[in-house]
Amino acid sequence: MDKVAAANRINEFLQAVVTHGGLHLKYRIVVDPPALSDWEKPEIFVDFSGPDSTLLLDRGGELLHALELLAFEILRLPSGEHEKVAFDCKNQRSLRLQELRMAASVAAEKVRQTGTPFHFAPMSSRERRMVHLALRDEADLRTESDGEGRDRCVVLYPADYKSTGGKPARRTLP
């Protein structure tokens, strides 16, 4: 991927969205930014700010995520390369990562106490990856993704858990 050309295509797309959408947003596109976390090292980072930032973050960041998905389509990025581009607004990514790490920690304790599997709520592939990574060093536990499409989630099991053939009851954090 030619990163500069890709950044220019993202800029053209976002200029059109902001202008024609009448949005009061500013954005900054950075090629080869510093790593966002231990697990996220995008090649192109887009950071939004401005009075309409709240629109991007409403409903769990639905619009921000939609713009990011459209950028993947415009760049024709295969799903295995989606981590090369990241959109953020008001440090939402970092906050969500902290939230996922905390949820993983709470779920790990619950599974250890009860010995039964724990189903996280459905989440995007990027968020599922974060949960898997947050729990990868827990030798007494294992994670798997389960479900299809929008209902795909992470399930946390005791490492030695043997399935009885049926699906374990779904339990999610409040």
Keywords:
three-stranded mixed beta sheet; single chain; alpha+beta; 174 residues; three-stranded antiparallel beta sheet; elongated; Ribosomal Protein S8, Chain: A, domain 1; 43% helix; GMP Synthetase, Chain A, domain 3
Please give a quick description of this structure.
The protein has helices spanning 3-20, 53-75, 92-114, 125-135, and strands at residues 26-31, 44-49, 85-89, 118-119, 141-146, 153-158. The protein has 174 residues and is α+β, with helices and mostly antiparallel strands.
How would you characterize this protein structure?
It is a single chain. The chain has 174 residues and is of the alpha+beta class. The chain has two domains: 3-90, GMP Synthetase, Chain A, domain 3 (2-Layer Sandwich); 96-158, R3H-like domain (Ribosomal Protein S8, Chain: A, domain 1, 2-Layer Sandwich). The protein contains four helices and six strands; from the N terminus they run H-E-E-H-E-H-E-H-E-E. The chain has a three-stranded mixed β-sheet, with helices on one face. The chain has a three-stranded antiparallel β-sheet with strand order 4-6-5. Helix 1 packs across helix 2 (53-75) and helix 3 (92-114) crosses helix 4. The N and C termini lie far apart (41 Å).
